[in-house]
């Protein structure tokens, strides 16, 4: 099974430049995530797909669809978006997913060219959740520095949590931790 995941990930990465605007790779202490976004920041729409593998055999897939535009927050050039991020996850005998509503904002710092800060927040109540998920919350914060025209490095924090539906009580942090990674622009 592990060889199949590695083969699928390698083939996906090889095909990404032909169909994507950027590829985002990140690591936490317990997970690895790849995200391909199909349009650049000057487009009015953003669509993307991501896959995360969490240690212990948890698979997390996300599909994104956001309306986006350029604006300014406190005189800082900003790209912001609102929309939906769909999640599907599987972990041993549990699985679930959700259609989480929310958005993101990326603030660029003009006095420090290449420096930006991004935050995203998405939430799905029980009416928009399925399987073993009763609700789902996703939060990601990152600071990025563009080293070259088509590549940047980032550090940040990722939190993805679901509460359980039905007879199971409690919640599960699907993915949480300090992360580091890189984004490559095509």
Automatic annotation (TrEMBL):
It holds the Pfam family YfaZ. InterPro entries: YfaZ. Keywords: Signal. Residues 1-20 form the signal peptide. It comes from the Bacteria. This is YfaZ family outer membrane protein.
